């Protein structure tokens, strides 16, 4: 059965959707079959792909019983990447969407059968630790937390970790903390660098891969594309997501005690 990874953060604009979309793309380019699931009533994934209110049916229609989850899956032009979009949701019904996703056992009944068909499911959640994030954590194997490298992020990170601990202890013993991904890091700015140093120094489980603050990520959002799909020379930033995908895959293998998942080699002699 495939693994389910939730992406959650307390803060809005922390880079969850950017992380979810570009990590999913990088993993798919590394030939892992990935289903990217949008649990945000604002439809972050659809917005990032320049597909707005009416483009796809999805979670909303699955919730109303109009569509089976397997029929809501949208295949992309990238062979190993599929989407489960938010669907056509009237903003007036956003609260209902959130409550419905959180109904006991519902998300599990939708996602666990799909998890059998993919290597990984990546769940993008709305900011805050409200019902969709809680429902996502309750069905996931792993959780990744993006932390924006700016001072306010440090204040919220403990709250996210507290909720993850609570869910793992009381609701979902399978849930494992995959780590914190430092996002929007600007090494030229003291404040940004300082936050990254505090995260590295003060928290365990901060990933080595970081996501820099860069205009090209904004450009990709504007164009409605994952970063690696922009034309022109391959940007170093897109390579960051490749490195992140490798790190995530190897962390998953390690947390599962699965050394087979990591490439092994015997020691060799050079001379
Ligand atoms: N590393 C980055 N460099 C520059 N801009 C970025 C970066 N990451 C995200 N952004 C921009 O910041 C904005 C918020 O990012 P994103 O939508 O990924 O955050 P989010 O956590 O999903 O937000 P929300 O809480 O609203 O769902 C977007 O406009 C995005 O293009
Ligand atoms: Mg988002």
Describe the structure.
The chain is α/β, with parallel strands linked by helices and 271 residues long. The chain has a single domain, classed as 3-Layer(aba) Sandwich (Rossmann fold), CATH 3.40.50. 42% of the residues lie in helices and 13% in strands. It is built from ten helices and seven strands. The chain has helices spanning 16-29, 44-48, 59-63, 94-102, 106-115, 131-139, 151-170, 190-202, 215-223, 236-255; strands at residues 3-7, 34-38, 74-75, 81-84, 120-124, 142-148, 176-183. The protein has a seven-stranded mixed β-sheet, sandwiched between helices. α1 packs across α10 (236-255), α4 (94-102) runs parallel beside α6 (131-139) and α5 packs across α6 (131-139). It is globular. The model has no long low-confidence stretch (mean pLDDT 91). The protein binds adenosine-5'-triphosphate (ATP) and magnesium ion.
Q: Summary?
A:
The protein is an alpha/beta fold.
* Number of distinct helices: 10
Radius of gyration: 18 Å
- The number of domains is 1
CATH superfamily: P-loop containing nucleotide triphosphate hydrolases
- End-to-end gap: 44 Å
**Spatial order of the strands forming the largest sheet:** 3-4-2-5-1-6-7
**Shape designation:** globular
Keywords:
binds adenosine-5'-triphosphate, Rossmann fold, binds magnesium ion, 42% helix, 271 residues, 10 helices, seven-stranded mixed β-sheet, alpha/beta
What's the structural blueprint in terms of helices and strands?
Elements: E1 3-7, H1 16-29, E2 34-38, H2 44-48, H3 59-63, E3 74-75, E4 81-84, H4 94-102, H5 106-115, E5 120-124, H6 131-139, E6 142-148, H7 151-170, E7 176-183, H8 190-202, H9 215-223, H10 236-255
Parallel strand pairs: 1-5, 1-6, 2-4, 2-5, 6-7
Antiparallel strand pairs: 3-4
Bound molecules: adenosine-5'-triphosphate (ATP) and magnesium ion.
């Amino acid at each position: 059965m495939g693994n389910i990874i939730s992406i959650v953060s307390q803060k809005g604009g922390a880079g969850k959707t950017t992380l979810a979309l570009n990590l999913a793309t990088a993993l798919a380019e590394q030939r892992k079959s990935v289903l990217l699931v949008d649990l945000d009533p604002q439809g972050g994934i659809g917005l990032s792909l320049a597909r707005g209110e009416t483009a796809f049916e999805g979670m909303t229609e699955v919730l109303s019983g109009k569509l089976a989850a397997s029929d809501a899956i949208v295949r992309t032009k990238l062979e190993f990447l599929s989407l489960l979009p938010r669907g056509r949701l009237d903003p007036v019904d956003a609260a209902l969407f959130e409550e419905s996703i959180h109904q006991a056992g519902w998300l599990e009944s939708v996602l666990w059968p799909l998890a059998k068909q993919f290597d990984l499911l990546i769940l993008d959640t709305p900011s805050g630790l409200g019902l969709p994030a809680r429902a996502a954590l309750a069905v996931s194997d792993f959780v990744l937390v993006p932390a924006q490298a700016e001072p306010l992020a440090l204040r919220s990170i403990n709250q996210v970790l507290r909720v993850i601990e609570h869910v793992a202890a009381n609701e979902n013993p399978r849930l494992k903390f995959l780590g914190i991904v430092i996002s929007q890091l600007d090494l030229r700015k003291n404040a940004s660098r300082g936050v990254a140093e505090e995260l590295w120094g003060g928290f365990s489980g901060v990933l080595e891969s970081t996501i820099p603050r860069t205009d090209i990520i904004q450009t990709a959002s504007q164009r409605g594309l994952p970063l690696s799909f922009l034309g022109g020379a391959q940007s170093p930033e897109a390579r960051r997501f490749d490195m992140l995908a490798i790190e995530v895959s190897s962390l998953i293998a390690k947390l599962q005690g699965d050394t087979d998942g990591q490439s092994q080699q015997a020691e060799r002699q050079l001379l």
